Amino acid sequence: MFDQGESITDAQNVADEITKLIELQAPRPIRTQVGSDMGITAVNDQMASLQLALINQLKPVYQGA
C-alpha cells in the first residue's frame, strides 16, 4: 500500500482533500482522512463528542479570554 508510484500514495490526494476542506461551506470536520478508511471513521465517530468538549474548553485560552 505504501509503494512508491502507486496512485493511492500520491501526495496529490492530500492536496485534493485539503482543497475540499477549504471550499466546504458547512462546518469543517475536526478530523478528515485521505485514502482507505482502515477503521478511522469508527474512531472519529467515537471521539467526536470528546474532541468537541475539549475544543470548547480550550476556546478561552486561544481566544484570549
Structural write-up:
The protein has helices spanning 12-23, 40-62. The chain is mainly alpha-helical. The protein has one domain (7-62). It is extended and about 50 Å long.
Integer-rounded radius of gyration: 15 Å
Query: How many domains, in number, for the residues?
Result: 1
Tally the beta strands.
0
Determine the strand fraction and express it as a percent band: under 5%
Query: Structural class from helices and strands?
Result: mainly alpha
How would a crystallographer describe the biggest sheet?
none
Total helical segments = 2
Pick out the low-confidence regions. none
Distance from first to last alpha carbon: 46 Å
- Reading the helices and strands in chain order gives HH
What's the average pLDDT? 84
Shape summary: extended
What is the share of helical residues? 40-55%
Short description:
By secondary structure, the chain is mainly α. The protein contains two helices and no strands.
